[in-house]
Amino acid sequence: MTALPSPALRQAVPSRLARAQEVLAFEWAKLRSVRSSRWMLLVAAAVTLGVSHPGVPGAVLAAGCALAACALVGLGLGAIIRHTAGAIAAAVAVIYLLGVFGLILPSPWGTRLGRFTMPFAAYQAVASHPLAGLLSPGLSMLVIIAWPAATLAAAAIVISRRDV
Fold first, then answer.
1. CA torsion angle for 146, 150, 151, 157 (degrees, to 10)?
2. What stretches of 82-136 show up as alpha helix (H) in DSSP?
3. What digits encode the pLDDT tens for the residues 6-20?
4. Is 149 exposed, middle or buried (0-12, 13-18, 19+ CB in 10 A)?
């Protein structure tokens, strides 16, 4: 008589091998990210700009506000669309692709329309030396605040009419 493994054991072995492969892939990716982070830290150590340097606290605050604004735009678009994949695609399009269109458009139109997009406004608000053709850092912060305000207002209107 030969002892054969049970069917449950035969099914468990391939799934455990797949899990081991997933763990190895995750550990490899983690190692790669740690190595790239080490290089970024070495580059960042070469920069001698501290938090007490003039303009840095405002830039850090503006960067935090820009990130929160991106999250609120995504929330507003998710409430309007009510479909996860569509909301993610719309948020990426509004946040990133409109800025890319500002770069693609010809010379006078690119900066005229691009300065009202989130990436251009965030760059102006965070930059230590703002670009000349775009809005001032204060007006750029107003643009950053206006995007989530507009999407959340549109979401409130759509929800009040649709979910009555």
1. 160
2. 84-92, 98-104, 107-114, 118-126
3. 666 556 556 666 677
4. middle
